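Backbone shapes recur. Consider a single case.
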Amino acid sequence: MRAVVIGLAETGVAVTRRLRGEGWQVTVLEDAPGASHAYAGRLAVVSELGARVLESPSPDAMRTAVSGADCVVPSPLVRFDHAALRAAREASIPVRSEIDLAGERAQVPIVAVTGTNGKTTVTTLTVAMLVESGRRAVAAGNVGRPLIDAVGDPVDVLVAEVSSFQLACSETFHPQVAVVLAITPDHLDWHGSYERYVADKARIGACQTSDDLLVFDADDADASKIADQTRARVVGFSRRADAEGRARELDGQLIAPDGTEIAAVAGMRRALVHDRTNALAAAIAAFAVGATAAGIRAALASYATLPHRVALVDEAGGVSWYDDSKATNPDAAVRAVESFDSVVLLAGGRNKGLDLRVLARAGNRVRGVVAFGEAGPEIADAFRGVAPVVTAASMHDAVQAAARMAEPGDAVLLSPACASFDAYANYAERGDDFASEVRNLLAEGAPSR
């Protein structure tokens, strides 16, 4: 058997390792070989495995490599118009997603989580609930470790975060439990349209059967449409206390669709609006694969906020400073703002082709806005006539400006609604810079307004 793997990042290495272990001949295509130690390490790994690597291959070399292959496996973010994928389609050679290969090899149930925001939190929270219940579980997929690397782990359940990029070319992926969180515009520069983005997300339930379960955000129109399309049993969760037949919060309790109490909100380590929604989604999924009520409550009582997701940096003078650098689209930023009564918002970066005017939906909670980065002018336009806006040329200036705007009782929130790549390598680097500037500011004493 012969496979062509496109891309020599983590996924490409994991697929190569698995297929070579099964005796496949593997050719790896890498369009942009790097000079870093990390790339050199990955190259050494696949070379030692006996794979052939073609760096910066020409279109003709790609077509030759693909001819006669039994499948082509693109890494996430490889575009559909890639020359090797075009050659595969022209030759009727199957294009396989890594998660397809992983699902076909998994010996235990898979819980798969998708949506636009909250995927990593729900994935890791589901794992925590299972572990607290005495079930062996591991998080994999878009959360960091490729799913195909985890299928041989000695666990009872695999919990996978799956992105729209991974789902886009999936054909056989069949999770026993699928979780569809709210879907809002994101990555349109890659998918081409919002309709295509939603359709790719919907593939999470395409191969499910009546023996499977799909958990969905009943308050979201597109997640609800996906639930209507699947053959699996469906369970919805809602932020509305009156949403009977859904998992929801009622009288200070998180409750299952049948009214059974899951956990007290007061017993959660943190219980912002989106925390409660994520807890409902994770609890339903975890119950379906063996979690106990006691385990779920224990996980909610101890689960720590992931870095850069509305994470408290510090407090001083009645003002709280939060790093939500992971919010790289407008919907994520709106949800973060809606967690507080009064916010000074730091937003900007590189827009991903999204409508930033959506941010004004939360304008009634915004005392002021500090706009920065390439998208600074778009951020300013979104809040024109809604809230005062100042611009900043650096994170240092942005934090200083936010301190001048903030009043006791406010949350100063870095929730950019944009990607970080105009000034940072990733959202984590941006969040770390923000936190460093905040700590320096507070150590020196905040500037007067």
